[in-house]
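User
Take a look at the entry that follows and flag anything odd:
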Amino acid sequence: MFKPQKSIHSEVLNKLAEMGDEPDRRAMLERLFLFMEEKGTPIVAVPTISKLTVDLYKLYHIVREIGGMVEVILRVLCQIDTLRQSQLNHNYN
């Protein structure tokens, strides 16, 4: 059965809002949902990675704590480079 888009958004928002009890959680998620909707890429399902639910509220705060998206990407790239160097050194020994 077809569900109106707003109903789907409400279900997803409610599920994400219920993942924690932080006082600003719902308001932050509502702003995120509105931003994504206005951008033309609405959040229509609970985000998952490897079948695990992604808590967008916590993810946002962790990324900010680390220093932002660019810092997170740089750290990941450094880890990848370190792994590659380790593999190269292992292959030559």
In short: The two ends are 61 Å apart (CA to CA).
